[in-house]
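Co-fold these.
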Amino acid sequence: MGIELLSFLSKRKKHSGNEDSRLPTIEPEVVPEYNEGFQEGENKVIRLVSNKKVNKVYKVTGIEDVASKNNWKAWLYLAPVVVLISVFLLYPLVNTIFISFAKNYKYATGQFDGFTFENFGVIFGWVTVGKGGTENYFLKYAVPNTLIITFVTVPVSILLALIISVALNSIKWFQKFLQTVFFLPYVTNAVAIGLVFSVIFDKAGVINFLFHSNTTWVFGADRWVAMIPLCSYIVWNSIPFKILILLSGLQGIDKQYYQAAQIDSCPKAKTLWKITVPLLSPQILYLMITSFIGSFKEYTSIVAIFNGPGTYGKASESDPNMETIVYYVYDQVEKQSTSLAAAAGVFLFVIILAFTFLQFGVSKKRVHY
Amino acid sequence: MAKEVLEAEQAVNYIDFKNVRVNPNITLSIAESGKTVASIKRREKIIHIVTTILTYIFILALALTVMFPFYWMIITSLKQNDEIMNSTQTFFPNIVMWSNYVYVFETFNFTGYMFNTIIVAIFSTLGTLLTTIFAAFAFARLEFKGRDALFMIFLMTMMIPGEMMVISNYLTVNAFGWIKDQTRVDAYLAMIVPFAVSVFHIYLLRQNFKQIPNELYLAAKVDGKSDWSFLWKVMVPLAAPTLISITILKFMGTWNSYVWPNLVTKNEDFRLISNGLRGSAFQDVDRGVTEYGYQMAASFCVTVPLFLLFVFFRKYIMKGVGRAGIKG
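Predicted complex below.
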């Protein structure tokens, strides 16, 4: 359905004037004029005999006529949704963009003095705040951490999910059972399993025991080392959904392609790369977009594992060295510096939009629908 | 020259040996390679068996890795803290400490958080279902000015990261007076109302409603039924699987929601289960170490209800996730 949504969206854009492009449009039949042997003034009966079975065509007509008088009724049905979406989706969007550009915005009264780019300047450390210091956590930690998480977990999890689902698709016994096993990480509480990961990666934990090392992974760890438990948790948590999507895609691939490859004695790796991957490309694109967006918004996993923005937990004197962009936003909301939160939020929005369009652009060449 | 080659190629008759039964007495020798059909078949069979075994080993190893955190959670929840902190880790508890669970139920306000979570889940699910059904019906069956434009706007809101909304929504909820001097009802309202609508679910249900044939609608019209009764008597029952999926996903979403409840609730007693789990410090005050055994026991208690839900509604969850791909 997700893929359907993508193609639906792209189709929508192309001919938005069309009522619903998904419905088969019925072309008006062109009736050729039958003139042969027909003379004016002479009555001649022509019997038209068809030996074709008439295909019944269900055409969407008439409904509009019945319902169109109920214009106000439709708005009555829509009223709750329109109200909720305006209050909790559209207004916040506009308001957040507004706050991010407002100077000295007071959230309690709504007062502000004109528009500036100052808030963005502050989060990027170009403008000094308060007692002459600069706010440097955003560029130092939040943005790089988010990018690292994204560019590590998205490819790794998609690749792993692809391998697992190809393997799952090729086996006969226990396929359903194993599929369920691989889906289990999805139905968990993110915080609960985050706690489990921090126990597993504890200094006296099972990972250090198994690999005979003495590394500090989580509490008090180096930022780069602490990325390993974090990324492995995110990958573990995001794989089930990807396997589900890819497996349903794999099961929809026509067996003939593989038989053709077999006749040509094509090696397995080449079959995977030249047949499976291209035919799965809509699913892969969908997963890329959703998981890119998802990993840009990583927050709960960090709270769950580290219990705070940095490897020292909530200790306020330490650097928030595991912070992500979204963590920064929430942190600023809690500190009631709404302007900075709004600026960071708008920055995130722009990045996500840019990435999404970039991927759509690339996909036009690479994806075979 | 080229033409001759082409003709020669066409003259060769290929035989598909897979579909032709070859007399076992005949040994087909494939030119110059020295292979026979039997030897090729044997070789293929061996390769097939080997790859199958390797695939199974690979899959099972990965499955064990995936299951490992669950296993570790359960056994750690049954261990003594000394055993957990020991340099030699055990893969089964030396002494099974059921008392960890007793302790967790006595100190961790499990039932309180559970109650909050269930209340919020029920009401936000009900709200979502109602708004979704109405909106999907209007978009799928009714005709009004600006319908497509409005639907496009709705779809576009899905692109906006929810984190952007949090900032303003916090101010909005605050303006509604649900945060200052918060009562229990205020806290619930603040957690329910902003999530009583989901654009994706509207999209999902609209697609489902559109598949219901128009003949049914016309028949209902002929029988003098109103739109309202058609919606509840025909469309909702027909779309029941989608509605069940929406319900379960929404419930799972509430079970997992952490950020928003953490932001809007001011009293520990009003929080949801995820907040309670993260906020509860199972610490040994004397030694300043976290009591992992208790922590894991609490984690297990939080995970089990979701597992039970999964066991009973596996089909709906997997179908719903495949379509929606989002929790909540």
